[in-house]
Amino acid sequence: MSLTLEQVQRIAHLARIEVSESEALTTQGHLNGIFELIEQMQAVDTRGVEPMAHAQDVSQRLRDDIVSEADRRAAFQAVAPETEAGLYLVPKVIE
Amino acid sequence: MNQWEVVIGIETHAQLATVTKIFSGASTAFGAEPNTQACAVDLALPGVLPVLNKKAVECAIRFGLAIGAEVAQKSVFARKNYFYPDLPKGYQISQMDLPVVVGGNITLQVGQGDKAYEKVVRLTRAHLEEDAGKSLHEDFHGKSGIDLNRAGTPLLEIVSEPDMRSSDEAVAYAKSLHALVRWIGICDGNMQEGSFRCDANVSVRPKGQAEFGTRREIKNLNSFRFLKEAIDFEVQWQINEIEEGRKIQQATVLFDPDSGETRMMRSKEDAHDYRYFPDPDLLPLVISPDWIARVKGELPELPGQMRERFVHELGLSTYDATTLTASQEMAAYFEAAVAIAGKANAKPCANWVMVDLAARLNKDGKELAESPVAAPQLAGLILRIADNTISNNIAKKVFEALWNGEGTTADEVIEKQGLKQITDSSAIEALVDEVLAANQGNVAEFKAGKEKAFNALVGQVMKAAKGKANPQQVNDLLRAKLAG
User: Which of A26, B111, B333, B363 could be joined to B115 by an S-S link, Cβ 3.0–4.6 Å?
Assistant: First the structure.
């Protein structure tokens, strides 16, 4: 399997990364190199092997449901580009 | 319309009843000042890591057990990638391939009275995920305002199979699910505050066709009425499109409650490509059999179990038992009434709760919890009907008096207002004689074979007794006199 230039541009769009025509070509080469590696790995017989969700064979630690975070809005908003009425302001978004 | 079959599946987001977020220790209390409950994790500041809330997991286990599903011993959190300012990380932590709850089903009752029928809706899965923040699009000098208090609030997304065949079935499902999550205490069910919201996947197909039609998904329905209206509109729209020779395109639509219409939000071409992958910040969630067993031991009696008990121990019909277990409040009220009125009066208790009380609450737009007549008061009233102190008709008057606070017990109202039934047969006999003498016309008609004339005479006697005579006694005495 290899990616078309169009697919590379779609992935870039989904990741909100701006790529020029020449960067897209380079990236296409890199990504296809990775796909070749994946193809090699897929040749390995993995029947009976459970898919791995994490590199370490440990399970998630859990936290008790107790409030531990105080209100630090003033500190957080002091470094925000723009705020008003306690809200973070961002370029207008309407879906 | 008749040659079309409607197919509906529902996805529900239930906000879990935790006091902190799913991956941070910030509060989830509703209505706080913007961003005062958004901590570094919720804001996705660099270097923060999520730590899973045990209570949220426990809520998922409770739900899985309550619907007879498999609670996965191992499930995995995944990143669902998309960019929107109310989601500062650039991805939502959710579950994809290995959800925490798999399968299960819910039995619901659709319709009322004689037309009611039972239906089993299968569930596909339920998974844990975090909610996003809120975007406010009012004018902030051409910008949007972001409140991240809701970001990271734990949700259980509950996905049904496409088993529903009408908007009524969809509403019955949503109501059953709503009652269940409240019953087992995992969600407050507050729909105005968005604690329980539904997306409906709707398609139509010619009756008898095996394949499903193309579906459109109606997003974010936060009331049962909107759910019904949106589906009804959408179904009619889809049928019209197909009948006019157009094909349905897969799409996501929004329902506008003001116009009662659905309109397209995005087509399949614009559908999000979320590029799910296991979240490397979170390890697999392992739920031990011990934990599941402990949660099972803590579960309250479930609606289905209670329904069976009402049928077998109290002799109620399945319909009555299902209606009474539609919400925990109603079931508790009914049980409290039966505890006083006795099992022998279970059926009248059921009728009073389901019919008279429900109608009165409805008239005043009140919830059961706000009922001015408490279960022990209603039970006291039912006991007086059972021992013939008052007739059913007078009982309605006493109920109204209790409702209006004209007395604290049925006995007090009956005493104060002199409503006690006349059971002294000589007193009733005197009334019967009076009525017979004054209504010779009706007597003649009855003797000529007109049964209606008899009812008129009963009515006259009851009127003369100001409703306080026992109708059966009046009947018997009249029959005896007329026969004589």
Answer: B111
Final residue belonging to a domain, choices B381, B416, B451: B416
Does B128 share its domain with B270? Answer: yes
**Cβ contact B467:B393 at 8 Å:** yes
Residue B482 to residues A48, B87, B381, B430, B446, Cα–Cα distance (Å)? 90, 83, 34, 14, 9
Q: Which CATH number fits domain A5-42: 1.10.20, 2.40.50, 2.60.40, 3.40.50?
A: 1.10.20
pLDDT reported for residue B269: 64
Give strand pairing partners of B203: B7
Residues of A in contact with B52 (CB under 8 A): 60-63
pLDDT tier for residue A14 given thresholds of 50, 70 and 90: confident
Predicted pLDDT at B243: 94
Contact flag B26-A69 (C-beta cutoff 8 Å)? yes
Q: Look up residue A93 and give its amino acid.
A: V
- Of residues B137 and A17, which shows the higher confidence score? A17
Crossing angle of the two packed helices B167-183 and B303-314, in degrees rounded to 10:
90
Of B256, B277, B293, which closes a domain?
Answer: B293
Min Cα separation B144/chain A (Å) = 5
Where along chain A do its domains lie?
A: 5-42
Question: Contacts of residue B26 in chain A, CB cutoff 8 Å?
Answer: 67, 69
- Residue A58: which of B52, B278, B283 has the nearest Cβ? B283
| One domain for residues B94 and B204 | yes
Q: Note the pLDDT of residue B389.
A: 87
Q: Supply the range of the domain harboring residue B306.
A: 301-416
Position B190 scores a pLDDT of: 94
**Cβ separation of B144 and A67 shorter than 8 Å?**
no
Listed as ranges, residues in chain B with pLDDT below 50 are: none
B286-307 residue pLDDT tens: 999 999 999 999 999 999 999 9
CB neighbourhood size of B477 (10 A) = 19
My answer on whether B438 and B465 are in the same domain is yes
Q: Residue for token digits 């009233």?
A: B381
**Structural domains in chain B (count):** 3
pLDDT at res. B271: 64
Minimum CA–CA partner of B28 in chain A? A67
Reported ipTM? 0.87
Distance CA A16, CA B383 (A): 72
Q: Distance (Å) from the C-alpha of residue B102 to the closest C-alpha of chain A?
A: 18
- Chain A nearest-CA distance from B53, in A, is 5
In angstroms, the CA B145 to CA B134 distance is 8
B368 and B254 inside one domain: no
Q: Is A59 on the interface with B (CB under 8 A)?
A: yes
Determine the Cα–Cα distance for residues A70 and A67; give it in Å rounded to an integer: 8
Assess whether B366 and B235 both reside in one domain.
no
Look at residue B451 in the predicted model and tell me its pLDDT: 83
Is the minimum CB–CB distance between A79 and chain B shorter than 8 Å?
A: no
Alpha carbon of A81: minimum distance to chain B alpha carbons (Å): 12
Same domain assignment for residues B450 and B377: no
Q: Are residues B27 and B68 in the same domain?
A: yes
